[in-house]
Amino acid sequence: MPFIPTLSVLVSVYQGEDYLPLFFEQVQAQTIFPELELVLVLNEPSAKEQQLTKEFAARYSEEQDPAAMLCYGDYVKVSAYGREDGKRRHTPPYQIAHFRRSFAQGGAFWIFRGEVADQIGVFDEQFRVGADLEYSFRMAAKELKMARCHDLLGFFTDAAQGLSTRENARVAEAERTAIQLRYGVFDRVRSEHLDEARKMRLDAIKNGETWIPVTNYLPEHGTYIEKREILWAVGKIRNALRGGLHRIGLLPWFHRVQEMYLKRDL
């Protein structure tokens, strides 16, 4: 999305190559710097002044991707509001195949263009917890591009009190399973949640009192699902391995290895 500065600073520079390094250092140290537009007027600039200015601009210019419909990035999970120490969620670069199968970017601190709703509709209101997960999968199924911001976006409070963060939150598990069924992620479906998941409408999106067919936004949805039927067989193998690791106490270790080296789940 276009960068709209809170403050614009106009600076005239003349014979300033000895002063620019410290000036740039001090400017970027200001708390308002992320909201700042810096305009330098270089009067008869030397080669050194031009080099310093270009290097600074390259480091801090806003990245823009007109094709991207959603921007996401890293955030830190903290145990209480106001804290800043916690576990960083390392989000991966956008890969459509990965994002069609996983909530790779999480739902925190999204920014997306208004045109997204024109192409894939609104959030599905039948999901109390997993609406953002479903929307992410729908965007990936539609092949809408997402872009990763390289900076830390914020701090997500996880005090285990929310619908999606409470222990044994069956609503969240059932909704996740329904979304996996809707988008053909059959190898990740957990059988214990199938009955609850199938009570939800997989073929339509709820908007107020209206049900909108998924095919309104994904015309090839049926074919999309059929091509993934083989994943049911893969899921049996996956669940057997998962059960074995759980029984011998190695499942948490396996998850840590995935997070450390792959930055994603298999």
Task: Please render the helix and strand layout as text.
Layout: E1 7-14, H1 20-28, E2 36-43, H2 47-60, E3 70-73, E4 75-78, E5 87-89, H3 96-99, E6 111-112, H4 115-120, H5 131-141, E7 146-149, E8 155-157, H6 170-182, H7 194-197, E9 204-207, E10 210-213, H8 221-226, H9 231-247, H10 251-262
Parallel strand pairs: 1-2, 3-7, 4-8
Antiparallel strand pairs: 3-6, 4-5, 9-10
Main features:
elongated; three-stranded mixed sheet; 10 helices; 3 domains; 10 strands; 266 residues; single chain; alpha/beta
Which ranges are low-confidence, i.e. pLDDT below 50, for 5 or more consecutive residues? none
Q: Between the first and last Cα atoms, what is the distance in angstroms? A: 32 Å
Number of helices: 10
Taking Cα atoms only, what radius of gyration do you get, to the nearest Å? 23 Å
Written as H for each helix and E for each strand, in order along the chain, the element string is EHEHEEEHEHHEEHHEEHHH
* Arrangement of strands in the largest sheet: 6-3-7
Mean pLDDT, to the nearest integer, reads 87
Net shape: elongated
Number of strands: 10
Beta-strand content: 15-25%
Q: What oligomeric state do the depicted chains represent?
A: single chain
Question: How many domains, in number, for the residues?
Answer: 3
Helix fraction bin? 25-40%
Biggest sheet features: 3 strands, mixed
